[in-house]
Design brief:
Layout lengths: L1 H15 L3 E5 L2 E5 L4 E8 L6 E8 L13 E5 L7 H4 L2 E3 L8 E3 L8 E9 L3 E4 L4 E6 L4 E6 L6 E2 L4 E6 L10 E5 L2 E2 L7 E4 L8 E7 L10 E3 L1 E11 L12 E10 L4 E7 L4 E6 L2 E4 L8 E8 L4 E3 L3 E3 L6 H35 L3 H6 L2 H20 L23 H20 L1
Parallel strand pairs: 2-10, 12-19
Antiparallel strand pairs: 1-3, 3-7, 4-5, 4-8, 6-7, 8-9, 8-10, 11-13, 13-16, 14-15, 14-17, 17-18, 19-20, 20-23, 21-22, 21-24, 24-25, 24-26
The protein binds 2-acetamido-2-deoxy-beta-D-glucopyranose (5 copies).
Length: about 425
């Protein structure tokens, strides 16, 4: 009975140590030229003896479930292993340890790897599932993912950037991120998350591994779309504009995509009216009715934004100004006419008096005018019966400066105004 008991126990423990292979991890992503570790343990019931261990990789056109062996990566009998693997594969070859290290991997090594062993009594066992090996082919590139598919990225969207290579990306590595070529010190993971992306995040991104020079060579644009902002009317005259001048108002803003249209409005007390479109709005001949407040609205695919309101001031030519100018012109006209008239009159007098020849020769044309004026004053004196003694102009020939003929008119005006002033004083 005792022996039977032992026998049953042995049988049970043998049965419990079942045929097994366990792989870890089940899939590997490795860089080209690096080494990979296929970590593996196996077991089989007692009473059996291990005869053959082998790692194989089914060909692409073969079944990938382990039923077809394809190519041997490792084989207890080295002759079974092709040249390609003979020096690159290191088998642990320890009790129940089936780990395999594969050196200097390349794209050709991409595939599924299985461990299989043979024992006596013609028992064979293949670890199910195998290990998938992918090769990360550099360079890195940034992929952009959003919750929305095939849609533009707008402000506020949740966006994830992932640092990938062509087939896969080795994990458990420290990553580095760059935005517009500048290192982002806080970003150290394979993914860069924006829970609510903003226009400040717009830019070119690249990534790589921290402890290697394998950074991405191409940049990926995070194309955050946003409605116009910072809309403003620039270079408008802040001072008053003269009537008749021309003024161009420019509207500017920042937007993505670049703007498609600007619309202009004029604000009056009662309403805001549309006046035109385009980045520039020109007022060719400014008049009083152009004075007022203006505003532009920038529009793109995403939305629109108003500029701040500017005020255009137009200088008023008052009626008083016009009257003043008109009066001045009129007075000048009268004065000139008067002088010409006087000269003519004087000439006639000279002709009739026949002045001595020597005196005529010393009198310049300017002095002649003074003479005339004096004469005219004299005649007025008589008619108005007033005393002008103090007003008498200095004798032409003595201390009066000699004037050029060009200055004739100026001199005459000053004399005339002298006369007028004096008259007014006397009347008071
Ligand atoms: C199996 O062998 C490998 C290579 O010799 C070793 O690194 C690993 O620690 C071993 N695993 C176990 C479970 O002993
Ligand atoms: C790694 O393999 C490539 C071919 O895939 C070969 O050119 C290179 O010399 C190998 N490097 C080493 C260290 O064996
Ligand atoms: C992003 O890269 C593209 C192409 O190199 C370049 O034209 C563009 O100006 C870059 N954008 C920024 C914001 O640096
Ligand atoms: C801009 O907007 C105006 C008014 O809505 C429109 O008439 C015009 O065609 C638009 N121009 C462009 C270039 O979209
Ligand atoms: C608003 O102003 C425009 C132009 O200044 C004018 O044509 C329009 O009649 C005005 N509308 C109202 C309701 O005052």
């Amino acid at each position: 009975m005792f022996y039977i008991g032992i026998f049953i126990q042995l049988s049970l423990s043998a049965a419990m140590a079942s045929w097994s292979v366990s792989y870890s991890p089940r899939s590997i992503c490795a860089f080209e030229n690096s080494s990979v570790d296929f970590s593996c343990t196996f077991d089989f019931p007692r009473g059996y003896t291990l005869r053959v261990s082998k790692w194989f990789k089914p060909d692409k056109d073969q079944k990938q479930d382990g039923s077809q062996e394809g190519m041997f990566v490792y084989h207890t009998y080295a002759g079974e292993t092709p040249e390609r693997y003979i020096n690159r594969a290191t088998y642990a070859n320890q009790d129940k340890n089936c780990s395999l290290k594969l050196h200097n991997v390349s794209k050709k090594d991409i595939g599924r790897y299985f461990f299989r062993f043979h024992t006596d009594y013609y028992r064979r066992y293949t670890g199910p599932g195998g290990i998938d090996l992918s090769i990360a082919v550099l360079p890195f590139r940034v992929t952009v993912n959003t919750q929305k598919t095939n849609r533009e990225i707008h402000e506020g969207d949740s966006v994830t950037l992932t640092c990938n290579t062509e087939n896969c990306t080795p994990t458990q590595e420290a990553f580095i991120w760059f935005k517009n070529g500048r290192l982002l010190p806080k970003a150290t993971e394979q993914t860069l998350r924006f829970s609510s992306v903003s226009r400040e995040d717009f830019g070119n991104y690249s990534c790589g591994l921290k402890n290697s020079d394998t950074t991405s060579t191409t940049e990926t644009l995070l194309d955050v779309r946003y409605r116009p902002h910072n809309v403003q009317i620039i270079n408008f005259p802040s001072k008053e504009i003269e009537e008749g001048d021309s003024v161009t108002l420019n509207c500017k803003s920042n937007a993505n995509p670049a703007l498609t249209n600007y619309t202009w409005f004029k604000i009056s007390d009662t309403n805001t009216s549309y006046i035109g479109y385009g980045s520039k709005y020109s007022l060719k001949t400014v008049s009083q009715k152009d004075a007022g407040r203006y505003l532009c609205v920038a529009v793109n695919d995403v939305g629109s934004q108003n500029s701040s309101v500017i005020e255009l001031k137009v200088k008023e030519h008052s009626r008083l100004d016009f009257l003043l100018i008109a009066t001045t012109v009129l007075l000048l006209g009268i004065a000139v006419t008067l002088i010409i008239f006087c000269i003519m009159k004087r000439r006639k007098q000279i002709a009739s008096k026949k002045l001595p020849a020597e005196k005529i020769s010393t009198v310049t044309p300017t002095e002649e005018i003074y003479e005339n004026l004096r004469n005219s004053l004299k005649s007025e004196e008589i008619s108005t019966n007033l005393t002008y003694a103090d007003l008498m102009l200095p004798p032409a020939s003595s201390d009066r400066p000699q004037y050029n003929s060009q200055e004739d008119m100026t001199v005459i005006y000053s004399i005339l105004s002298d006369r007028e002033e004096t008259k007014t004083i006397e009347q008071i």
